[in-house]
Amino acid sequence: xxxxxxxxxxxxxxxxxxxxxxxxxxxxxxxxxxxxxxxxxxxxxxxxxxxxxxxxxxxxxxxxxxxxxxxxxxxxxxxxxxxxxxxxxxxxxxxxxxxxxxxxxxxxxxxxxxxxxxxxxxxxxxxxxxxxxxxxxxxxxxxxxxxx
Length: 148
Hints:
Distance between the termini: 32 Å
Largest sheet: 3 strands, antiparallel
């Protein structure tokens, strides 16, 4: 989705690899409709949007750094390699973990997912082509102010 395709993932590979992947998908009960339309959208994304992934990765690193600097816990010491950032609320946060997603959306228009890891401690943030620098700033401001 970081490339702007309507599907969550697209598998790309040599003919034999794709043949085996299709076979595995069928064995697991998977089927696809309109695969050609989705493939064309994936091809467009691969041809036009790959270079901008670096922007998403830079924004994710900014999110991680700002959250870590504000006292939030991040796995791997805050190291982020892609457009996905996981974080946990600091112990002194005035919110319960269940309260953050609805409040963040209601007050800042930012959608986040929670419930990751055992105990559901982690939240997940994903940057993509529809999130710009202002969106990153709003996310940081929202999360840090709601937990202050």
